[in-house]
Amino acid sequence: MTDVTTRRLDLAGTRDFATSGAGPTRRRALAEFGFRWLQQLWREACAGRRHEGVALAAVGSLARGDGGPMSDYDLVLVHHPRGLTGKEVGAFADRLWYPIWDAGVRLDHSVRTVAECRAVASEDLSAAMGLLDLTHVAGDADVVNAARSTVAHDWRANARTRLSEIQEAVLARHARQGDLAHLIEPDLKEARGGLRDMTVLRALTEAWLTDRPHGEVDAAYERILDVRDAIHVVTGRGRDRLTRDDQDACAALLGHPDSDDLLTELSGAARTIAYAADGTLRRALQSQRARTLRVGPRRPQLVPLGYGLYRHDGEAVLGPSADVASDPVIPLRAALVAARNAIPLSPTTLRNLAAHSPQLPEPWPEVARDVFADLLGAGPGVVTVWEGLDLAGVVERWIPEWAAVRSRPQRNAVHRHTVDRHLVETVVSASGMVRDVARPDLLVLAALLHDIGKVPGAIDHSIKGAELADTILRRIGIPGPDREVVVRLVREHLTLIDLATRRDPEDPATIAALSDAVGGSVTTLDLLRALTEADASAAGPKAWSDWRAGLVNRLHEACRTALVAANGADGSRMVEPMDPRPLSKEVLEKVAVGEPHVAVASLGGAHRIDIIDRDRAGLFADTAGLLAAHGFVVRSAIVRTLDGVAVNEWWIDSPGGESPLPELITRDLTRVRSGDRTPLGRLQRRRAHRPVRSPGSGSPDSTRAMVISSASDSATVIEVRATDRPGLLQDIGITLARASLAVRSAHIATYAGQTLDTFYVTEFGGARLAPARAAQAVAMIIDTCDAG
C-alpha cells in the first residue's frame, strides 16, 4: 500500500467514526491533505519549466471538501491558450498525472482552456454541474477564477432552458438506480435521495431560481457521507454501494448496534434529501414559469380547495383564514385536500401545521376519525402527502407508535419498501378495493396498521401488531365493535394467504380454520380478502401472482359460501331506518302550510341538520343538491317518509368552516319547491373544480349497484357503492325521480371517500318494483354515477 493511501486511511482512522461531529472534521482533514499533496506534485512538475497561464483545479468531492478516504480525485488542468503550446501543456499534464497514478489514487482528469470549459459545460449537463465546484489548487488562480465565473454565468443565464434537462436526468437516474431509502444494497451516490441529489440541490441554488432547505438536509447529507466513508475503510476501496457483506462491519464502525439500525438511519437520511430535492426542483420550475409568464407585477394564483387551503403553483398552501392555532383537525383536513388533488403540501404549510396546530384530544372527535378515514382512502396522492407530514413530525403526533417502524428495513426479497412505506403503499392498494367491502374505513385502517408490529424485539409481528393496533385505535376513538374487527384483521392478516397456499382450500378443516380466524363474520372475511391482496400487491410483484390470487379467491369463496349458509345471510346489509319519534304539533302545523322545518345542531366540527317537509317527488334530490351547493359534505343521512311527511336527518361537514344556517336552508328549499332552481347554480361551479382521479390511479373503476332481494318485503332495496363527489346524492335522487320511483326511506353513509347508500324505493302507489323495473333503475343509477 502506497504512502498516500496509508496516510488517507490514517486520517480516516476508526477511532472517531462513531463520534458525533467527527465526520466533517475527518473529511476536511482528507481534503487538506489532498490539496497539500497535489501542491507538492505541482511544485515538482514546475521545477525549471515554464508554467505561465496554467493552473491545477479540482472538481467533485475534493473541491467540495466532502471526499472519503478512498475517493478518487477529479482534476482539471486549466490553461490560457496564449500561454504554453499544446505540446508543452500535454507534457506538463503528464508530469502531474503519472505520480498520482503511481500513488494508487484513482484519477479523473482533463486539460482544458477557459473556452473549452465553457463549451463542455454548455453541452454536458453533468460536466456543467461539476464545473460549478471548480476550485483552485495550484498555479495561476486567475485562470481558474475565469473558468469558474464563466461557467457560473452561463449556468444562471441558461437556467430556464436547462431546467427541463435537469428534471429529465434526475427522473431517469432515479428510475435506473431506485430509491435509496428502500434498497437493501443501495448505491449511496446515484440512488434517489443519495449524494448526487445534493449536487443537484446545489446546482439549482447556483441558478438563482430558488434556495434549498438546510438544517436537517445538511445533517442527512453528513450521515450518508459517514456511511460512504465507512464503506471505504471496511473495503479499502472507493465504493459507493453498501452491500450486505459489508453492512455489519460498517454498522460496528459507525457505532450502530446492528446493520438494521444502520439501514434505518440511512433510509431516514435518504428520505429527507429526496423530499428536499423534489420540493426544490418543483420550486425552481415554479420560478421558471413565473419568469416566463410574468408581465408586470404578478399576483399569486390561488385556487380554493376547501378548509382554508388553496392550490398555488402545484402545491397546497394554507390561506389566511385557516385557523391553525385552535383547530386540531386542520392537519388532517389539509392532508385530505392535498391527497385528493394529488399535490403535495407546501413546506411552509407543513412547518406551520407542525409548529402551531394543537394536539388532537383523546379520543379523537368523530369528525377527525371521518377525515382520517377519507385521507387513507384518497388514493395514490396519499404517498407524497404522508411523506411530508411524516418528515415534519405530524404523523408521529397522530400515531406515536409510527416512530418504531419509520424507515425500518425488511430483509425479504419479496418486499420492495421499508416497513412504514409498505404500510402506506398497502393503504393505496386498499383504496382501489373499497368498493368490494361493506366497511372501507375499516379496510384502510387495517391496511395502515397491519405491519405496525414489525418493531425490534417482536417475535410475531402479527400478535405484536394487534396489541399496538388496539392501543392506537382506542386513542383514535374507534368504537369497540369496529376496533375489534380491525385488531382481528391485523392479527390474522397472513392467515388467508397462508391457508390458501399451504392447505387444501376445499378441505372442511381449512375452511373451518379461516372461519375461526374471521370470527364467523362474512363482513370480516371480505375485509381480510381485500387486505390480503392489498398487502401482497404493495409488497411487490413476487408476492401477488395469478397463481396466488386464484388460490386466495378459491378459499375465500368456499369459506364465504359456508358462512352464508350457516348464518342465513351475510350480515352486511343495511336495515331500513326505524320510524322517528312523533313530531310536535308546532312542526306539523308548520309543514301543513308548506313551510319546511329546519333545525341545526353542531358537535365537534360536524353538523346535524334535521329537515321536515311535505313529501314530494324530487325532495331528496333537491335537499342533497342544496347541501352540496352550499359546500357541505354529507357524511351520513337517514331519510324517512311517514304519513306523507319527509323526516330527514343529515350529518354534514363544512370544508369552508361555515355553520349551516337554518333560515337559509329553509329559504332555498322553498324557492326550489316553487320552481326556482337558482339556489342550485353554485353546485355546477363546484362540480367543475373537483379533483379528478387519473386512470390507473388505484381508485375503484365503476359504480356498483344491486338489488337486495331479501332485505324488505314491502319495498325494493337498492344498494349503491360509488366514489363520493359533489352533487352525487342529488344526481341519484334526480335519477330515481326520473324513473318515477318514490324513496320511502334511505340510509346514506360515506366511508373513506366511498358512498354506501341503501335506498328503499317503491312505485308511487306503494308497490314493490317488478324485476324489469328494478333492473332498469339499477342501470340508470350506475350510468348516472359513472357519468359524473
Helix content: 40-55%
Catalogue the unreliable spans.
570-574, 691-699
The rounded Rg comes to 33 Å
* Tally of DSSP helical segments: 31
Query: Termini separation (Å)?
Result: 73 Å
Strand numbers in spatial order across the main sheet: 8-9-11-10-14-15-13-12
β-sheet strand percentage: 5-15%
Record the SSE blueprint.
Elements: H1 3-11, H2 22-46, E1 54-59, H3 60-64, E2 73-79, H4 86-102, E3 107-113, H5 114-123, H6 125-131, E4 135-139, H7 141-157, H8 159-177, H9 195-206, H10 216-235, H11 244-253, H12 259-293, E5 303-306, E6 309-312, E7 315-318, H13 330-340, H14 347-356, H15 366-376, H16 381-392, H17 394-398, H18 419-431, H19 440-449, H20 461-476, H21 480-491, H22 495-502, H23 508-517, H24 522-539, H25 546-567, H26 585-592, E8 597-603, E9 606-614, H27 619-629, E10 633-642, E11 645-653, H28 662-673, H29 681-688, E12 704-707, E13 716-723, H30 728-738, E14 741-751, E15 754-763, H31 771-787
Parallel strand pairs: 2-3
Antiparallel strand pairs: 1-2, 1-4, 5-6, 6-7, 8-9, 9-11, 10-11, 10-14, 12-13, 13-15, 14-15
Helix pairs in contact: 2-4, 5-6, 5-7, 8-12, 9-12, 10-11, 10-12, 11-12, 13-15, 13-16, 15-19, 18-19, 18-24, 19-21, 19-24, 20-21, 22-23, 22-25, 23-25, 24-25, 27-28, 27-29, 27-30, 30-31
Question: Can you tell me about this structure?
Answer:
With about 800 residues, this protein is of the alpha+beta class. Among the domains are: about 160 residues, Beta Polymerase, domain 2 (2-Layer Sandwich), CATH 3.30.460; about 130 residues, Four Helix Bundle (Hemerythrin (Met), subunit A) (Up-down Bundle); about 200 residues, no CATH class. Helix content is about 50%, strand content about 15%. It has 31 helices and 15 strands. The strands form three sheets. Strands 8-9-11-10-14-15-13-12 form an eight-stranded antiparallel sheet. Strands 3-2-1-4 form a four-stranded mixed sheet, sandwiched between helices. Strands 5-6-7 form a three-stranded antiparallel sheet, with helices on one face. Helix 2 crosses helix 4, helix 10 packs across helix 12 and helix 18 crosses helix 24. The chain is elongated, with a radius of gyration of 33 Å. About 0% of the residues have low confidence.
